[in-house]
Amino acid sequence: MADADRIELRGLRVLAICGALAEERERPQPLEIDLDVETDLSTPGHTDSLGDTVDYGAVARTAQRVAAEGRFTLLEALAERIAQEVGRHGRVTSVTVAVRKLRPPVPLDLATAGVRVTRATPGG
Fold first, then answer.
1. pLDDT tens-digit readout, 46-98
2. Which of 41, 15, 28, 36 is nearest to 97 (CA)?
3. Is 51 in a helix, a strand, or coil?
């Protein structure tokens, strides 16, 4: 079976409140979000019409809004909320959300710390 069609969004940079430590709860920190939105791309591949596909600009704005407006202790909760909201866009059958802290608060030389969740949409 062939891989599912998907729209890939990589490296969306946002500032968000996300963390368990006091300093992470007080001010936004830089996060990076990747999204894989599964959807049937055969129709828009033939029609070349934005109306026949998932608008990746709208998906990116949704992820940015969820991150900016929320206050999360865990990256898992942020990723889950983004997946729920992106899944509400029409034509989405599933979504994978990866969220990474770009400055993880650990005393090690660690470039990023993150999570990845995949959720099917109702009816997807």
1. 999 999 999 999 999 999 999 999 999 999 999 999 999 999 998 999 999 99
2. 36
3. helix
Report the candidate in 120, 32, 37 with the shortest Cα–Cα distance to residue 78: 32
Residue 10 three-state SS: strand
φ/ψ (deg, to 5) at 55: -75, 110
**Phi, psi dihedral angles at 119 (to 5 degrees):** -135, 135
Other Cβ atoms closer than 10 A to 36 = 17
Length of the chain: 124
Q: Are 7 and 36 in contact (CB under 8 A)?
A: yes
The pTM for the full model equals: 0.94
Q: How far is the C-alpha of 29 from the C-alpha of 107, rounded, in Å? A: 17
Alpha helices, DSSP H only, in the chain?
A: 22-26, 42-47, 56-69, 75-86
List, by residue number, the catalytic residues.
101
Q: Starting at the earlier edge strand, list the strands of the sheet with 113-120.
A: 71-72, 6-18, 29-38, 94-101, 113-120
